[in-house]
Amino acid sequence: MHATTFAPWEDPEAKPLIRFQNVTKRFGTFTAIDNLSLDIYEREFFALLGPSGCGKTTMMRMLGGFENPTEGRIELSGQDISGVPPNKRAVNMMFQSYALFPHLSVWDNIAFGLRRDRMPKIDLENRVAEMLKLTRLEKFAKRKPHQISGGQRQRVALARSLAKAPKLLLLDEPLGALDKKLRQDTQFELMDIQEKTGTTFVIVTHDQEEAMTVASRVAVMDEGRLMQVATPDRIYETPDSVYVADFIGDVNIIEGTATPDGQDTYRIDWAEGQEPIRATSAHPFATGDRCYLAIRPEKVTISADRPEAAINAVKGKVLDIAYLGNISTYHVELPSGTVIKAQTANTRRISRRSFTWEDSVWLSWTVTGGVLLAE
Amino acid sequence: MTAETATFAVPRRRAVRRAGATRMLPGHAAMILLSLICVFPVYWMIVSSLRPANRIFEGTLWPTAPSLENYAQALQSIPMGAMLWNTVVVSASVTVIQLLTGVLAAYAFARFRFRLDWVVFGLVALTWLVPLQVVMIPNYLLVARLGLLDTVTALVLPHFAHALAIMLLTQSIRAFPKEVLEAARMDGAGHWRVLWGIIVPNLRGMIASLAILIFISTWNEYFWPLLLTRTAENSVVQIGIQMFITQEGTQWGPLMAASTMASLPILIFYVVLQRQVIQSFMKSGLR
């Protein structure tokens, strides 16, 4: 039986929960967000990914009501929310520093917003208990924030932000303060909680692994603009610019000139003395157009001899080996000086590794292995 | 590690510790000396208050014939109880009112942006530099016109706000983590709730330090009460102490006894609030 795929963004009838319409935000002469349009749907776990200063936090703060757009319009459930104060929006936020109230217990931190809403005592107690259970904090209810660990504080912040059952929860680098192991565990917890509550989550992160793990869709940003919005697999497999290909994961970028060579296939002349390589692309290139082949290291096969059927094969010398336990990345230098990375899974013990430094090797990949990009 | 190195490891560490302690010795000695210099006048005041009148100038560290007669004389000569009570009322009122106005003004300066806010803040800060002697006459006239001469109210009235409290609290609120305030705002807390429910409980240390400063400086106030009060019953303890310095000479014994009695409440106040200051320092740090 096929599970129903959650992809409201592919349904032209689907109404977005959040709509950015040509939003621009300027701080003096600095443009933080540049004419940005974006739809985010209900129950999505949406990630805003980009380097520091790319505008992702500004977008989040505009959603939270702490900033207003200079131009354009932001809608929540079809209503323009520009100028609506933070507490009047069905939005809550989990801050990077958790922003817990240091003088209040875990229980009181979670109950804070409910008390402001004047929720009846019995309902309030039930809701706090529900949140404590959801975040597995029952045992710590009476403790103050300084009496619990970083991971527990992170869960208190999550419980507090979910207590008022917001339509939209904003998470600003929520796992940034946790160590790697705890961060990985918490990513799955976050996904579980998001599924259980059905709340739309928008997460801001600069950690691509985190974005790829938790999000249903990822928006890659740069200098206030959206570079690409797609599912994690599409972002990784079919980036639509060199920037996105380079920002997400490890990639080899081979620059050259394209010449059409059959249907959707192009010959790429890329370095003097090197055989041309071939790649497919749905994007049309004319003869002599500048192009960039982005190919992931794991799509490049390394072998001692030239594979017979290989269309793209180059010879080089092993310059460096990065051993990561489960995989090894080989940095292979070609006669032209270009270095290409190839990755292999370490299915055999290290003592039986086929290649070592200075070995002469062949690198090969298929015509569809890489993505041919215009910019 | 071999057994030999293990045997030598412990004495070596002890030697290092001893060397460290030796290095710190001059510092500790200097601090002990400074503490003694600070504490000695207080000790001498208490000891002198216990010396009988005929032995008031004896140079021994402890009175040869200790007695409480100076205390009895001090209590008979001036209405010590009423004066202490007035001083407590004035100091406590001024402390509470200055903290209240300070917190409110500081929140406005720290959190609201309005036209020429920095000019207003600068003017408030400048009032700190204006000495009492400059505002003494206008304040006196105002109090006199209000018919408040020789009243405790008049001692409190000109001290409703102080630039020091406003400036220190403004800096503390400005340094308060913005995200905590935004989280409170997002959870539906207005300015009033944010101030009293979030900021003030977390600035306990700062407020306690300020309370100590304001209370002590008000307690020690001499000139303004001297100008305003006419009767001993409506006066404060600093004026009472001065009453032992007369044209016929100074009554050192009762003066020291009255000074000791005047110092006790303030010492208790300091000890109580000092614990608050230390506790709040220990609990600081939001993450």
TrEMBL record, chain A:
Keywords: ATP-binding, Cell inner membrane, Cell membrane, Membrane, Nucleotide-binding, Translocase, Transport. The keyword Translocase applies. Signal peptide: none annotated. Its EC number is 7.6.2.11. It catalyses: ATP + H2O + polyamine-[polyamine-binding protein]Side 1 = ADP + phosphate + polyamineSide 2 + [polyamine-binding protein]Side 1. SMART domains: AAA. GO terms for molecular function: ATP binding. It comes from the Bacteria. Residues 18-248 form the ABC transporter domain. The keyword Protein transport does not apply. InterPro entries: AAA+_ATPase, ABC_SmlMolc_Importer, ABC_transporter-like_ATP-bd, ABC_transporter-like_CS, Mo/tungstate-bd_C_term_dom, P-loop_NTPase, PotA-like, Transp-assoc_OB_typ2. It holds the Pfam family TOBE_2. Belongs to the ABC transporter superfamily. Spermidine/putrescine importer (TC 3.A.1.11.1) family. The complex is composed of two ATP-binding proteins (PotA), two transmembrane proteins (PotB and PotC) and a solute-binding protein (PotD). Part of the ABC transporter complex PotABCD involved in spermidine/putrescine import. Responsible for energy coupling to the transport system. This is Spermidine/putrescine import ATP-binding protein PotA. It comes from Pseudodonghicola flavimaris.
UniProtKB/TrEMBL annotation, chain B:
The keyword Membrane applies. It is a multi-pass membrane protein. Signal peptide: none annotated. Pfam families: BPD_transp_1. Residues 84-273 form the ABC transmembrane type-1 domain. Gene3D superfamilies: MetI-like (1.10.3720.10). Its main location: membrane. Keywords: Cell membrane, Membrane, Transmembrane, Transmembrane helix, Transport. The chain crosses the membrane at residues 24-46, 83-109, 116-140, 152-173, 194-216, 252-273. Coiled coil: none annotated. It is found in: Cell membrane. It comes from the Bacteria. Belongs to the binding-protein-dependent transport system permease family. This is Carbohydrate ABC transporter permease. It comes from Pseudodonghicola flavimaris.
